[in-house]
Amino acid sequence: MNDLGAGFGYLMKGQRWVLGHGRWFGFGLLPGLITLVVYAGALVGLGYGADDFVAWATPFADDWSSPWMGLLRTTLTALVFVFGLFLAVITFTAVTLLVGQPFYESLSEEVERSEGGEVHESGLPLWRELWISARDSVRILLRVALFGIVLFACGFIPVVGQTVVPAIGICVSGYFLAEELTGVALQRRGLHLKKRLGLLRTRRLLVLGFGVPLALSFLVPFVAVFLMPGAVAGATLLARELVDPAADLPAAPKEWAA
User: Fold this and answer.
1) Is the pTM of this model over 0.85?
2) Helix spans in the chain (H)
3) How far apart are CA 31 and CA 1, in angstroms?
4) Helix or strand or coil: residue 121?
5) What pLDDT, in 10s, does the model give residues 175-220?
6) pLDDT tens digit string along 7-30?
7) What does the alpha-carbon distance between residue 62 and residue 95 come to, in Å, rounded to a whole number?
8) DSSP string spanning 233-255?
9) For residues 161 and 8, what is the distance between their CA atoms, to the nearest angstrom?
């Protein structure tokens, strides 16, 4: 259980770091603001269109008597919107990191510089870094989508679907949020996606302690934008905890092509 508290501590340390370095906080806000505008429009559209989509998808319920038709469609509409929020929480980080790759790389390097020790650099051109980030994000999103489909189906289970399933969904969101964010620092160390996931599995509670509170915070409108700079800073500190600081890690990772 100590790891849960330690993970949350890294999230707080990251927020304190950017608040103590105001220029970097403002610098890190820009990608999130751009992404927020796009996502806000998408969620508003989902909110207006979810009931029409459910009605179209359930023509068999048109002749059901009250209250069963309304109960079914109201439940499905809520599940569609919750599923959309679930995907938004996960993909927001991936898209923001992709949009803000140069911003967050610089921020992460500055955090490591301020903490002392070697500051790892990828040695790769920007287009190559963007390609790797996009490729890994798609792989993560495919994993998340599989979890989402299973959780969506489990949402129909009475009681469990309204209590346990949302809690599991937040844990899944938090875990993969942490993976996306620590990826900024771990990629510079030459760790490709498979190795990063393996590294995170060795300290699951630490990762959940960092990611779950962040995922819950991201459900509050606009909060994600303001927490992203500190989340990147905290994830960089978390990445330093996950790897062996004495290890001879490559500065120009050829493994990324794997």
Assistant:
1) no
2) 2-19, 22-57, 68-99, 101-115, 126-154, 160-188, 193-201, 204-218, 223-242
3) 34
4) coil
5) 988 888 898 888 888 788 888 888 888 888 999 999 999 988 877 7
6) 899 999 999 999 998 888 888 888
7) 39
8) HHHHHHHHHHS-TTS---SS-GG
9) 27
Say if residues 18 and 25 touch (Cβ distance below 8 Å).
yes
Question: Tokens 């998340």 identify what position?
Answer: 144
Q: What is the pLDDT of residue 224?
A: 79
Q: How far apart are CA 58 and CA 67, in angstroms?
A: 15
Residue whose token pair is 């509409």: 77
Give percent of the chain with pLDDT exceeding 70. 87
First to last CA, the chain: 35
3-state secondary structure (DSSP) of residue 124: coil
Say if CB 47 and CB 81 are below 8 A apart: yes
| Residue whose token pair is 């969506």 | 152
pLDDT surpassing 80 at residue 129: no
What's the number of CA atoms in the CB half-sphere (13 Å) around residue 14? 31
